[in-house]
Specification:
With 397 residues, the protein is an alpha+beta fold. Helix content is 37%, strand content 28%. The chain has a domain of 229 residues: FAD/NAD(P)-binding domain (3-Layer(bba) Sandwich). The chain has an eight-stranded mixed sheet with strand order 6-5-14-15-16-13-17-20. A six-stranded mixed sheet has the order 8-2-1-12-19-18, covered by helices on one side. A hairpin with a 5-residue loop joins β14 and β15. The protein binds adenosine-5-diphosphoribose and P-hydroxybenzoic acid. P-hydroxybenzoic acid binds next to β15. The site of P-hydroxybenzoic acid has 11 residues, from β15.
């Protein structure tokens, strides 16, 4: 078997890349370890930046999002004992956000692939990447006990944090940056109308977040100690804890109901430099992880895919490799911007176990400064909105 680009992983990064390459007439095959049903089960953050929304629309993937998603203008920050304030991204940058379930994006992408007759092979095992430094790499894998070989020009590693692609880059060529946070997020999804805004709360009992998926579906989170047991969190306990972390008027507005999903996620920042090795290019969680504060993970996967698909198009349309050569550096500029803002918001809004009085005062000062400074709000709005994708009109080579 032979194709132009092998895409490893059918998460949002892999499937979006498949759709864009297919629309540009580039032949590709997606290889996914799990079943489609398994991929569709995962519940993740669902806040799309304007750049993500525009790209999905541009490739004809915005129809359901525009019908079911919920547009909003920014985020509110509340902090025990003080008045809330709003970071108004629409006012400062003329950009908005779309709350839209990531599961739905994943579903929309699979449906688009079906319409196109795209080659998506699921439930593959023992995937190995070979000859990455030659011009003729290939992958081997097994499916139903049978081993296959797929030759290609390039490989896109979109197989998430635990995938094989990144591990195929020799460790001495990888510079890894990592930070773990000493707490997790307990999240629930409930079929209840959300608060009007996305609200982040900093409270002595810990961070809390009120978010949304649609006018009738809410997503809420609370900071919990590392190693917390989900079985100790009944719905009643969750609602009473989250309400205690919000000002009374907001707590009273929260419509409670049974959870339809409940899970605990650890918080971590991670970046792999480089995002390219020979004919292998990493995109999405395969190359970087952000803590969920700010909901940047999916948006970063989308910007990687934008840069990578543009680079493949320049190669297949014009024979130019400049954008492929620049891919890692270009993608990493935006990655670090989102990694930094996610780290900043995590530090600003959580209570760190063992934090000193000094840490506490510094955090309070930062919140007071943000609340009172127009310029600080504009700077946060710009980063929270996500940097624009870098334009590239003329190629030199
Ligand atoms: N072989 C083939 N597929 C694999 C392998 C492997 N060895 N290992 C992992 N995969 C698959 C996973 O099963 C998964 O479906 O790769 C896919 C990776 O998908 P995601 O983990 O969703 O990563 P990505 O597509 O980069 O999506 C970006 O970032 O922060 C998150 O919420 C955000 O889900 C979003 C993600
Ligand atoms: C979410 O809706 O899942 C969400 C929203 C905002 C965040 C993180 C997650 O910062």
């Amino acid at each position: 078997m032979k194709t132009q680009v092998v895409i490893i992983g059918a998460g949002p990064a892999g499937m979006l890349l498949c759709e864009i390459l297919s629309q540009h007439g580039i032949d590709c095959v997606v290889l996914e370890k799990n079943s489609r049903a398994h991929v569709l089960e995962r519940i993740r953050a669902g806040v799309l930046e304007q750049g993500t929304v525009d790209l999905l629309r541009q490739y004809g993937l915005g129809q359901r999002m525009d019908q079911e998603g919920h547009v909003h203008d920014g985020m509110k920050i509340v902090w025990a004992g003080r008045e809330s304030f709003f970071i108004d991204v629409k006012k400062h940058l003329n950009k908005q956000f779309m709350a839209y379930e990531q599961t739905n994006i994943q579903e929309d992408l699979f449906l688009a692939a079906d319409r196109r007759g795209a080659k998506v092979i699921t439930e593959v095992a023992n995937l190995q990447l070979m000859d990455l430094s030659s011009n003729h790499p290939h992958v081997t894998f097994t499916q139903n006990g049978e081993t296959s070989r797929l030759d290609c020009d390039y490989i896109a590693g979109c197989d998430g944090f635990h995938g094989v692609s990144r591990q195929s880059i020799p460790s001495e060529l990888r510079h890894e940056f990592e930070k773990e946070y000493p707490f997790g997020w307990l999240g629930i999804l409930s079929k209840t109308p959300p608060l009007q805004d996305i609200v982040y709360a900093n409270h002595p009992r810990g961070f809390a977040l009120a978010s949304m998926r649609s006018p009738s579906l809410s997503r809420y989170y609370i900071q919990v100690p590392m190693g917390s047991d989900i079985n100790e969190w009944s719905d009643d306990r969750f609602w009473s804890e989250i309400k205690s972390r919000f000002p009374k008027e907001m707590a009273d507005e929260m419509v409670t109901g049974p959870s339809i999903e409940k899970s605990i996620a650890p918080l971590r920042s991670y970046v792999c430099e480089t995002m390219r090795h020979g004919q292998l290019f990493l995109a999405g969680d395969a190359a970087h992880i952000v803590p969920p504060t700010g909901a940047k993970g999916l948006n970063l996967a989308v910007s990687d895919v934008f840069y990578l698909s543009r680079a493949f198009s320049a190669f297949y349309d014009q024979g130019k490799t400049q954008l492929l050569d620049e891919y890692s550096a270009t993608a990493l500029r935006r990655v670090w911007s989102s990694v930094r803002i996610s780290w900043y918001l995590t530090n600003l809004l959580h209570r760190f176990p063992g934090g000193s009085d000094f840490d506490q005062r510094a955090q309070e000062h930062e919140l007071d400064y943000l609340k009172s400074s127009y310029h600080a709000q504009v700077a946060l709005a710009e980063q929270y909105a996500g940097l624009p994708f870098e334009a590239r009109n003329a190629l030199n080579t």
